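Example 3.2
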Amino acid sequence: MTYLSAVVLGLVQGLAEFLPISSSGHLSIFQNFFQLSDVEHDHMLFDVLLHLGTLVAVFVAYRRDIAALLREFFTMVRLRQPRRGERPDVSARRTILMIVVATLPLLLVLPVKGYVESLYSNTFFIAFALVVTGLLLFLSDRMRRGNKNALNATMGDTLLVGLAQAVAVVPGLSRSGTTISACMARGFDRTFAVKFSFLLSIPAVLGANILTIADAVQAGVDTALLPVYLVGVLVAMVSGYAAISLLKYIASKGRFGGFAYYCWGAAIVTLVLSLVS
């Protein structure tokens, strides 16, 4: 693992984790065709740190929303005493419930976790999944603009978004692109769809890394590589924050179609490289 590899991996993780272009698909492409380090097996601690770095970007970008959710959560479980005259934040309470409901379908993935991981080396499947991601984004631009938010979305809507997130664990399918498209298909407001997608990533990323961190520690930690890891994590944090800011802007001003064409282009390149390698 070199500093250049760490920077490239951090950049790929930060941008592709939040832009709807599939971080897992891009990491697979780089690792299979360009001999980039296989972080999931050779540098497990670095893989965990990269995901936590991008998680920090979510906390920074949505710090006010997350602070409101935490404040309301601690009030709900009686760990915080509301101030005199303070009313319950109904929107925050509903958002907390929505995150819990939408996270539950991820439990269905655990029995097939090994099979999902085996797909990372199947570049033909990666290409197909990128085509599907592009199709979802293309169709999402053509859906009628909705107005649902935390106050009027149903738990049925939320569960379907959660199922979309569970399906998106396969490499090549963008988690953010799939969940945002599912939100818009259910009539969510575009800006709220983006915000909910990113808030929903918090328990998903934390849960995945809790399952992995013990294995990472058991695999051993090369302290000489910690400075290299730190550089990669910082790049992931900064690029991740930039990606979130860009997607928030696009949600309020533009369309996701450009990402659809990018995914299709990446799928074609992946297919060609698969055939000639």
